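Propose amino acids for all 313 sites.
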């Protein structure tokens, strides 16, 4: 990955959004000794099925399907066509079956694999886990996101308001997407390394919780859920059309709510990422006038939201 340099005389204090993890590169701008490294893992089968639908693979398979076009069969046909004759180690790196390989790639497997050549896949997975164990201060779990965020809150010395979220891009379609256990096992076979990562770090999350106090964390999780639900209800109440648009994964328009906190959390993640990059390009003297005009407006809008939150608090 390419990391844009910070402004002259400044240094990075946070890295967010999607990035392929490369410890050697990351440590140059965010030293391990002074940085809290965290990421999040989703159950491999759930992540595969979500990507299969979200990125249009299901639709493409459906369009070319002639008979017996159940969701289970579509998944099996995709695996048979895209990952045929591959070992799990090969599938984890092959773009043709990318819903299988994307998370391990993002965590740095593409670079790390060169250090474990000759090992069997179980030993490769163990070595990869050991590296990530050393690098990551906390690996959160999507299926346990509330617990994960409460643990993160403790480590970062944050408040409930710092970890509140509004669910977006959650499909509201009532569609039968059941798959058989045999298909689940097939997906897990090809996602062997990611499956090992998930099971390991799911257990490590329990260790974090035990160290902080299981009863204490459980109590705070319950408090957080009440706080989160109240916050989301208030946001939706101030933005009547947000509920429908969130269900449909649409972008929320600017100015639909008078709450800066709601507006910030409803701000589209891709626009957020673009705004950060835009701000850097503008500071480097980008000469594209049309780009400068658009980017400066996005950056100004985002900074205005943050300033309104700061003034309220």
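Proposal:
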């Amino acid at each position: 990955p390419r990391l844009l340099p910070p402004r002259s005389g400044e240094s990075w204090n946070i890295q967010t959004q999607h990035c392929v993890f490369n410890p050697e590169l990351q440590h140059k701008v965010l030293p391990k000794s002074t940085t809290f490294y965290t990421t999040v893992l989703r159950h491999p089968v759930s992540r595969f099925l979500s990507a299969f639908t979200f990125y249009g693979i299901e639709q493409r398979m459906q369009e070319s399907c002639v008979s017996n076009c159940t969701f289970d069969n579509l998944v099996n046909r995709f695996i048979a066509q895209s990952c045929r004759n591959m070992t799990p180690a090969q599938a984890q790196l092959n773009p043709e079956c990318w819903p299988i390989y994307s998370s391990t790639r993002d965590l740095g497997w593409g670079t790390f694999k060169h250090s474990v050549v000759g090992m069997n896949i179980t030993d490769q997975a163990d070595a990869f886990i050991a590296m990530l164990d050393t690098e990551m201060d906390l690996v959160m779990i999507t299926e346990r996101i509330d617990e994960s965020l409460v643990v993160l809150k403790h480590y970062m010395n944050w408040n409930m308001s710092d970890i509140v979220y509004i669910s977006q891009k959650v499909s509201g379609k009532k569609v039968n997407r059941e798959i058989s256990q045999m298909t689940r096992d097939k997906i897990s076979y090809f996602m062997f390394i990611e499956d090992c990562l998930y099971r390991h770090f799911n257990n490590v999350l329990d260790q974090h919780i035990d160290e902080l106090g299981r009863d204490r964390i459980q109590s705070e999780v319950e408090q957080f859920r009440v706080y989160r639900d109240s916050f989301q209800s208030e946001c939706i109440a101030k933005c009547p059309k947000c509920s429908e648009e969130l269900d449909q994964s649409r972008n929320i328009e600017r100015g639909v709510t008078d709450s800066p906190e709601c507006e910030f959390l409803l701000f589209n993640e891709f626009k957020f990422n673009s705004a950060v990059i835009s701000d850097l390009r503008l500071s480097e003297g980008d000469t594209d006038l049309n780009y400068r005009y658009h980017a400066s407006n996005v950056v100004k809008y985002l900074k205005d939201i943050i300033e309104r939150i700061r003034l309220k608090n």
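The radius of gyration is 22 Å. DSSP finds 17 helices and two strands in the chain.
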